[in-house]
Amino acid sequence: xxxxxxxxxxxxxxxxxxxxxxxxxxxxxxxxxxxxxxxxxxxxxxxxxxxxxxxxxxxxxxxxxxxxxxxxxxxxxxxxxxxxxxxxxxxxxxxxxxxxxxxxxxxxxxxxxxxxxxxxxxxxxxxxxxxxxxxxxxxxxxxxxxxxxxxxxxxxxxxxxxxxxxxxxxxxxxxxxxxxxxxxxxxxxxxxxxxxxxxxxxxxxxxxxxxxxxxxxxxxxxxxxxxxxxxxxxxxxxxxxxxxxxxxxxxxxxxxxxxxxxxxxxxxxxxxxxxxxxxxxxxxxxxxxxxxxxxxxxxxxxxxxxxxxxxxxxxxxxxxxxxxxxxxxxxxxxxxxxxxxxxxxxxxxxxxxxxxxxxxxxxxxxxxxxxxxxxxxxxx
Length: 380
Fold this sequence. Notes:
GO terms for molecular function: hexosyltransferase activity; UDP-glycosyltransferase activity. This protein folds into 2 domains: 2-191 and 363-379, Glycogen Phosphorylase B (Rossmann fold), CATH 3.40.50.2000; 203-361, Rossmann fold, CATH 3.40.50. 42% of the residues lie in helices and 15% in strands. The protein has helices at 11-26, 37-45, 58-63, 80-106, 119-127, 150-153, 155-160, 228-238, 251-257, 271-274, 287-296, 310-318, 332-344, 346-360, 365-376; strands at 2-6, 30-36, 50-54, 110-113, 131-134, 171-174, 188-189, 213-217, 244-248, 263-267, 280-283, 300-302, 322-324. The model has no long low-confidence stretch (mean pLDDT 92).
């Protein structure tokens, strides 16, 4: 098979679909990843062939309309989903031409799109190809139907194809285990394994220390001028705990955080390698971060940074594997108290290990490749 992956605009999208894409390639299938300049670089970083379909960054897509006019983030949280949906529409629009050229020349058998990559279903309709949606989050808005604002933004492209809406996907690939899978339509479950850029692993990363290890991260997009407040607050709140505090962050951020009291290590950290040695992870509600922790059977303290993740983080808390502190509740005392509970109450670790066991029983990516092959016999 020839499989064209359209993951979305950022690294985490690429790492999300990476397990299936890597499995396809090592199983003898032909694979190409089509993404923005950032996504294409992430794809080649994990050993996948990639085509750059846009030089625009996520920030440019969010803050500039098609005509180059500046856009401002809405102040009303209720307007944010539609604002972001228009960005997904612009992403599809700018990617459509270059990806159409790729499809015309390479002739893939099937398309696999991330949940925000709407060029996939449009091109599938145009070329009569099957298109699967690779789900990457547990939030309903990212799983069911079309994001608000997408079809308004894509009206010219839909009209040119004789469509009045974004076509349905032929398959939904779900990397969430059944016990935490949101209600919705039928899905093809798949065991996800972390795929991310690698560097040489230092021995301490895979060796438990004398004290319990706590991994802290605010995500890969944090910079010295963006997201640092959250990181400072988390480190400050946990500094007095009797733990070995490891902060996963971009190197320029790690250099600043290393100077803070209580921090043993800071900078680039391979989460999948370090987490099995940890007693707790504290994070910003990033889905790939949460899934990596679930695989390792590690309890989580989640501080969701987007409204769409608050309910999902709360659901993980009801399953007994996490505590979630939504915005406004994440005071220094609350953070320290929640971390102590997660470290000292055995029920959290027990529930986290049970979820890891459930994930280990999910169908492997090679099984999903067979399902994709079946789709190729049902072209539109």
